[in-house]
Give the backbone structure.
Amino acid sequence: MTHIEDQPTSVYRLYTRGGRLLYVGMTNNPEARFAFHALTKRWWHLVDKRDIEWHPDRGTARRHEALAIKSEQPVHNAMHAAAGEHDTPLRDARSKLSTLVDEVRVKHEPRWLTYFGERFIALVEPAFHDEAVKNERIANALLEVDPGLYARLAGDG
């Protein structure tokens, strides 16, 4: 029997009738996976089109899946969706919140909660606003990372 890592593995994309990408996944048995999704995914009724591409092994498929999720931004994927080292997908935040708060406190750096790769909530130290207003280095870094938040802190938005 062939080990699962050595089996041909597919990367699949699920689309709405209008062509919006809902989900990217990987499996060595697409029909079984689709049946499972039909039972477990609230959004399954929106799926109108399925594209399947096969890869020689699971490792290759895993790399293609990760790249597709990051670059194509499907609506219902959270895996691989964090944008950077200071980002945590929102679905993981509850279990990691105390750790994230400790990191903000100890490292004096913001942490972000992301929702499908988009920064949604910033965790910062309580004194961050006052320091950001006075400290040009922090203000410039914030302007680069999140111009909208910078504008709100600066009183421009």
About this structure: The mean pLDDT is 79.
